[in-house]
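> example.struct
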């Protein structure tokens, strides 16, 4: 049985590639999908498709509509969502994606450092599992196959 895993979280480092590599080492039958990780493409997709917008607010609105559609389609087709909260970047998109996953009834694993226990307590309480590392998240998924 192969699972599709949506990887929600910031797009500014290679945590997704690290997780995918570790999953491959463990020989887990997982397929990964994610938000658009090309930051420029994500920011500009609205104008790329709809044309020049009259200002930055409209540019952001056009891009967010298309990005939200992409996220919803990929998340709906996923079996599990892993939402990673790191310490370095603001986490608005991760919080939105985690909340959307839970609202959709998707099994959700939150990954967050100890320093974010308090600010994420409500989300953590709603998630199926909360862990501190991507290794622990993979161990949770590996347990499904035992």
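> example.seq
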């Amino acid at each position: 049985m192969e699972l599709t895993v949506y990887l929600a979280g910031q797009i500014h480092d290679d945590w997704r590639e690290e997780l995918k590599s570790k999953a491959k080492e463990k020989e887990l039958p997982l397929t990964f999908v994610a938000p658009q990780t090309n930051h420029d493409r994500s920011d500009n997709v609205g104008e790329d498709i709809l044309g020049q917008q009259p200002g930055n607010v409209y540019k952001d609105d056009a891009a967010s509509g298309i990005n939200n559609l992409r996220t919803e389609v990929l998340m709906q087709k996923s079996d599990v969502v892993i939402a990673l909260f790191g310490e370095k970047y603001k986490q608005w998109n991760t919080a939105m994606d985690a909340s959307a996953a839970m609202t959709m009834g998707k099994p959700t694993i939150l990954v967050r450092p100890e320093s974010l226990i308090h600010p994420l307590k409500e989300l953590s309480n709603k998630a199926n599992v909360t862990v501190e590392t991507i290794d622990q998240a993979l161990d949770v998924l590996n347990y499904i196959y035992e």
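> remarks
The chain is about 50% helix and 15% strand.
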